[in-house]
Amino acid sequence: MAVSQMIGASIKRREDPRLVTGTGSYVDDIPQTAVVHMHVVRSTEAHARILSIETGRAREADGVLAVFTGKDLKSEFNAPLPVTVCFVPDKKYPNHYPIAVDKVLYAGEPVAIVLATSRAAAEDAGERIDIRYESLSPVLDIEKAIEKDAPVLHEEIGSNLSFDVKFASGDIEAAFREADVKIKQRLIQQRLIPVAVEGRGVLADYKPFTNKLTVYTSTQIPHFVKVWLAVILGISESNVRVVAPEVGGGFGSKIRVYPEEILTALASRRIGRPVKWIEDRNENVKATHHGRSQIWDVEIAAKKDGTLLGIRPTQWLDLGAYCSQFGTFQVLGVLVAQGAYKMKAFDGRSVGVFTNRTPTDAYRGAGRPEATYLIERVMDLIARETGLDPVEVRRKNFVRAEDQPFTTLLGLTYDSGDYTITLDKALEMVDYKGFRKEQAEKRKQGKYLGIGLATYIEICGLGPAAATQAATGVSLWGMSVVNLHFTGKATVIIGSSPHGQGHETTYAQVASDVLGIPVEDIDVVHGDTAIGPMGMNTYGSRSTALDGNAVHLSAMKVQEKAKKIAAHLLEAAEADVVYENGKAFVKGTPSKSITIQEIAMAAFQTNRIPKGMEGGLEATTFFDPSNFVWPFGAHIAVVEVDADTGATKILRYVAVDDCGTRINPMVVDGQLHGGIAQGIGQALFEEAVYDEAGQLRSGSLTDYLIPAAPDVPSFELAATVTPSPVNPLGTKGIGEAGTIASSVTVINAIVDALAPFGVKDVIMPATPDKIWHLMHRNGGSNR
Amino acid sequence: MRRRVAVTINGAKYEHEVEPRLLLVHYIRELAGLTGTHVGCDTSNCGACTVDVNGHSVKSCTMFAVQADGAEIMTIEGLAKGTTLHPIQQAFWDEHGLQCGFCTPGMIMAAKQLLERNPNPTEREIRLGLEGNLCRCTGYHNIVKAIQAAAKVMAPGAEAKTPASVS
Amino acid sequence: MIPAAFDYVAPRTLPEAVAELVQRGQEAKVLAGGHSLIPLMKLRLSTPSFLVDIGRINNLNYIREEDGHIAIGALTTHHDIQLSELIRRKLPLLSSAASQIGDPQVRNRGTIGGAAAHADPFGDFPTCLLALEADFIIAGPREERTIPARDFFVDTFTSALEPNEILREIRLVTPPEGSKGTYLKFSRRSQDWAIVAVAAQVSLSGHEVKNVAIGLTGMGSTPLRARAVEQALRGKAGHDDEIRAAAEKAAEGTNPQQDLNGSPD
Ligand SMILES: Cc1cc2nc3c(=O)[nH]c(=O)nc-3n(C[C@H](O)[C@H](O)[C@H](O)COP(=O)(O)OP(=O)(O)OC[C@H]3O[C@@H](n4cnc5c(N)ncnc54)[C@H](O)[C@@H]3O)c2cc1C
Ligand code: FES
Ligand code: FES
């Protein structure tokens, strides 16, 4: 192969011209004649029995075509919404159907649908539906949910406890016996609303006489949606086509099969016309799943020289009202809580409970931000307790380069990494020593600067097939088809389903690199189940490590076949043929070459290819790697906390990340920027707040605050490159790393700034109000 | 109780009878068929629906179409000349100022107003000028860079560079 | 998130607009910039069946100085106020507040008349207008009347306007040469509504505080004057310790509420 020209090139994204001109098509932009608008009437109660639903007045309203309740539709569901194993095979969970029938379990749960000729008419009619509820007391507190006398959400389960599982290894009692330093700390992962700027939306068209269903949906998982539409609605899978068009952000919030996807398709089948449902933000904040919502209790055993001996973390996980499809994926937080460090014992536990709130599921990082938050707070707590520098505590406990591949206490094996290299680089960028001097000076002037760091490691890639099947219940791998046309142009079909990650660009780079076909001549197709084999979609920073490598492997197969054809045409032995930059030639005579375009053409003139060879130039790969991939890095934030107002300002944010080979560094950096900002959002601004009645109080973007441009700094990024040994490109994931590292980085910095006030922890979001109280809890006397 | 609304959008004239409650953004998307203007929040917070009305950037989800009767409107679709991108669009492309692209049309329209009012903004001024627009993908880093780059190109006296056309 | 249906007129003159309001009675509402009303209508928290759009009345958008006062037309946008050279020179408190309202798009549409009439206790202009002791000139079915600021803000979302009245102009006494004013707003993000804010207008005579007016945003059901602070500052030279002592009194006579962004402390 020629020296790589495309891998590592920050070429501009091919997605962008259509997006910057407003000519890309998101679900709501798809032209559709005679479309019917669906409005979902949602529960206004958090926990109640439905006594009656009076729809007569709505049916009579202008423009209304039909009104359906759960009772009207329930016989059409052949199966409940899917729930995966995700680390907890023995959990208890209820059957969850797309629409409530007898009982509502969270405010926002669908109770009726209205179909009308316009959205306005559908919403008007929705107001004319009269629902009588018998209110039940809502369960809203994770710990109280499993008290004896708590009201029970799911009678068939008998309590609000879904599971209580242990993940332990090593002698934790011995670790605590050996410890000079024992610390107990409670940490809160507040409930978050993902807020993709495009909400969800579905356009479904069921054709009565052919029984064919086409669904456009704003999703990360078109291939899974296809399967479950077929299963739940009892339609042959071959008659279902699901398309993820332009998707306006996901962050995990579009990773599951949603009630509205089923309801829209079912509505279309019921009335024999295309039906569209577009989620408004009011619904989105309640109907699209939330993230985090966990309490963590940790006990730490360490020595006074900073050596970590063991931890005993318990994760209290709020599943919300049902167990969402990947709801228990968040348990991963316990499984990877060892982080980048060695220890002797680990005694983890995860408890999952039901509450009368929106279900929780994967949200950017899903488990790994929680794990990182835990272990990186642990490092700082040890530093505070022992009086050592947080940097030294980390160095002392790092898994070393020579320990790689390192196996954790829970049996996960890291693929590669020298964690000191990213740390050293980040410290140098921020001038750590210089900062500590400045900090001391400023404190004397009543100015509170703080520095915080996180030296994270994360698991991603989501393949290998066997490991993921065992752990999550879904066998995950990468898929690609590389198909050359008659004129030597290529179509690349991928199993991932991007929504901002730029796969159309980066995967073309991968194919171009192998085949020497210019990027402009390679079309990357995704998100349409009617094209190509099944794929495993996009989440868990898996796409490039899986599907990106699958593209590489398919392109290699195409190259192999091209060489065979070239050898035939050049009348040479295959072993003597060299393929370089889109040309094949006999070793030593590059002047007498034939191009890939000529070879492609020959491939479709079957008389010109070797006997017995199939025509065409196409290859398919299902790529199953030998391990997960483990990106790592060091993030550092410098903050200033205003003593008068408690407001935090992030002065600098430095990040050094190692995600292995960087196919398009510009795109990698972009993923980090967005991820870091999202983690800053959790650290400083975001929280889904419920009142005592179970109503979401932060129910719009006026009250649920996500960072805007003035709230974040410009980021200072650098990279190291440790190629992953488990895939041919050496890539790891980078979609979630920013979020995984940044919230704890910022919190560690704030806690550092507040050290003169004796503050050891700050609960997220670190609002000015909370910080001001921490600073003034002793009348401000320790200032 | 329909009302007649006549507007000019991107130089073309449109006239419709509409319900007074029709929001300008829905007029633009559904009646004029220009779907580049997006709806991201419904509560006037996200700016995805930003368009120009008589030279002022407004959130078209917070204006009734009837209020715009007689107005000159410009949407994201009106910025490029043929396949030649407007310098701000070009800069968003060059600097990777977008990922999913959903916020982008509104962001670009807000940036346009920002640069009209302040052709040479500091980083802080750019960030404040975008405070009405939310992006969940980019962390704003490259959006700021894009606007800085566009400001350079658009500055009076800047070399009349021919922006690359869309290939 | 679609407003309930309503009927709509856009009269060209103030008397026509008043006549429409009189004819429709309680079910009608005035529409100005729409940046408070439309969000409420989309949430169907407000469902007027008739809107009188005053946005096309020609002569309601102005800022001018006339015999010792500055007159601002009700339809003047936050952006126009922020930009006005006259306001910047004579009433910097107002330009300072204007620049901190919402975001650029909101400031392009929102009007000072709407902000006053809406009487949001977290609104920025009402506090300034109270501190500046503005007069509100009101057109209605009867003779034009003038309400002073201290009587204008009645309660949360309630002004002294009758449903058939239209706020036409806001009139402010031009502060004496050398008088200074500014608006300090504290919010979670720069585009947000205030958690608390302070409007201050101070006139010095030599080094001594001669006149001081301080308004508080978000500390009760209406904008408030911090009378105790004003009292404590009057006649002082404005040393740090005096200011601090005065500031201690800021909470006197206020009644802040717990909300998502902050506790009453
Ligand atoms: C995203 C967003 C952020 C905002 N942030 C802030 C902020 O930080 N600070 C702040 O102070 N405000 C803020 N606002 C509100 C904004 O300033 C509004 O524009 C203003 O409060 C109302 O002015 P309007 O012209 O839009 O009034 P409208 O919405 O048209 O009317 C508001 C009310 O006043 C009545 N009314 C309007 N004009 C008159 C009149 N001349 N005579 C009689 N009645 C009248 C209407 O009937 C209605 O009841 C924000 C708004 C939005 C959408
Ligand atoms: S849709 Fe208009 S501001 Fe969000
Ligand atoms: S690019 Fe996705 S929201 Fe901005």
The gist of it:
By secondary structure, chain B is an alpha+beta fold. Chain B has helices at residues 24-31, 87-94, 104-117, 123-129, 141-154; strands spanning 3-9, 12-18, 50-53, 56-59, 72-74. Chain B has two domains: 3-78, Beta-grasp domain (Ubiquitin-like (UB roll), Roll), CATH 3.10.20; 87-154, DNA polymerase, domain 1.
Notes on the structure:
The complex is a heterotrimer of chains A (783), B (167) and C (265). Chain A has 20 helices and 26 strands. By secondary structure, chain A is α+β, with helices and mostly antiparallel strands. Among the domains of chain A are: 3-21 and 478-623, Aldehyde oxidase/xanthine dehydrogenase, molybdopterin binding domain (Aldehyde Oxidoreductase, domain 4, 2-Layer Sandwich); 413-460 and 626-684 and 714-762 and 775-783, Aldehyde oxidase/xanthine dehydrogenase, molybdopterin binding domain (Aldehyde Oxidoreductase, domain 4), CATH 3.30.365.10. Chain A is globular, with a radius of gyration of 28 Å. Chain B has 167 residues and is of the alpha+beta class. In chain B, a hairpin with a 2-residue loop joins β1 and β2. In chain B, α2 packs across α5 (141-154). Chain B is globular and about 50 Å long. Chain C folds into three domains: 7-53, Uridine Diphospho-n-acetylenolpyruvylglucosamine Reductase, domain 2 (2-Layer Sandwich), CATH 3.30.43.10; 58-173, 2-Layer Sandwich (Uridine Diphospho-n-acetylenolpyruvylglucosamine Reductase, domain 3); 179-247, CO dehydrogenase flavoprotein, C-terminal domain (Enolase-like, domain 1, 2-Layer Sandwich). In chain C, strands 4-5-10-6-7 form a five-stranded antiparallel beta sheet. Chain C has a four-stranded antiparallel beta sheet with strand order 11-12-13-14. Chain C has helices at 14-24, 37-42, 78-83, 85-90, 92-99, 104-109, 112-118, 124-131, 149-152, 227-233, 240-247, and strands spanning 7-9, 28-31, 50-53, 63-66, 69-73, 135-139, 145-148, 153-155, 158-159, 166-173, 180-186, 196-205, 208-217, 224-225. One FE2/S2 (inorganic) cluster sits between chains B (98-104, 135-138) and A (197, 249, 500).
